[in-house]
């Protein structure tokens, strides 16, 4: 009898819950959006390239919150900053999961598709580690490293401006790899740089239309690899191996250095020291967490840093009047007797406008990373069901201004109410990028030193005519300017002497300030 009563009460509670959810959803309406087709929903209406443009069109037609369905999975796209902040910032406790990525789970070797995306203990642990090293206060300790690598970058650009992208990649790799693994990077041919480039390239390629179907039909992951339409699974296996190597190899070298009594301190070595047991060993779970957080830290920092720096240089090539104003402002602060320092930042307001405009003009990550609603929610009079995928159209938010395709730093002087891109491009809520302060300092360090010491102009063709680069950006997760040529040369002998006379001392990781954390 007791068993029957318990079962009856459980069934009754379940029925009441289903009924409450049904009537709650009926009381509110769904957000508007384009009419879905049977079975496939809106899948065929979403372009594979530059979907942010189509989402912006729908935003203009249906409003700032657009509802889509893809093979039964509900998605909402937020096209305004108010909607993004209301849901992802103010209600972050409900919107901090990531959607299920079955393919990515296979790549990373996780047995459960949602293990790595839940806002749970593992995520909070990684975030706590990274935030401890890269918060707005502690990140200032990396400035000597940034200054050193900036000088190396300037010399490389002056020597071979045609290899600009490789020089920028080397800078981004040199700074983050030194901090993460205490590895010195001489060129883009460095082993670690190649490992990350291979893993990143394969991961992007694995995001093909066929591969993403696995997220909507998880059973597809069990299909044998010999079938003609399962290339995505073979690619996934190759990508998984590349990601595993990227995580394991640099970690193992840090461990070897520690055992040999050398190598110096780094993000990884500090965590290993913190988490080792009395016998000096790290548990498999801790080792996996350290490898994952360190590998992700580098993979995330490198590509977006290069994108922002490429955009700055392209904008200066196309807008020489803007660059002249920047040089005049810099000269009024530093003259030709010293290089700029971070203490000069408040004295360079026009530069702040230019950097904002670069990040607005070409948003590094146009759609950000998706969130997942953890519980049913109501926004305005719209019903949002648990499990809904939430996308923020960051490009649409930052292009909601006059003449959005025009590069115009003065817009931030004329309209100070425009959103600062630096408060938007790094995400929202508990999923905001913890390395954002380091990324900002990289962009500021390089741009100021370029302005102070170098002239950036259009390249000249064989007929002596200037080459105007087209304003074209790549499509994908990270948006880059398409390759272009330009001239980069020292402004004057006096200013170049400041670069040549800068001493490039070896950078020492400030370990004493990082060993004490929970």
UniProtKB/TrEMBL annotation:
Keywords: Heme, Iron, Metal-binding, Monooxygenase, Oxidoreductase. InterPro entries: Cyt_P450, Cyt_P450_CS, Cyt_P450_E_grp-I, Cyt_P450_sf, Cytochrome_P450_fung. Pathway: Secondary metabolite biosynthesis. Pfam families: p450. Its cofactor is heme. SUPFAM superfamilies: Cytochrome P450. Heme binds at residue 433. GO terms for molecular function: heme binding; iron ion binding; monooxygenase activity; oxidoreductase activity, acting on paired donors, with incorporation or reduction of molecular oxygen. Belongs to the cytochrome P450 family. This is Cytochrome P450. It comes from Agaricus bisporus var. burnettii (strain JB137-S8 / ATCC MYA-4627 / FGSC 10392).
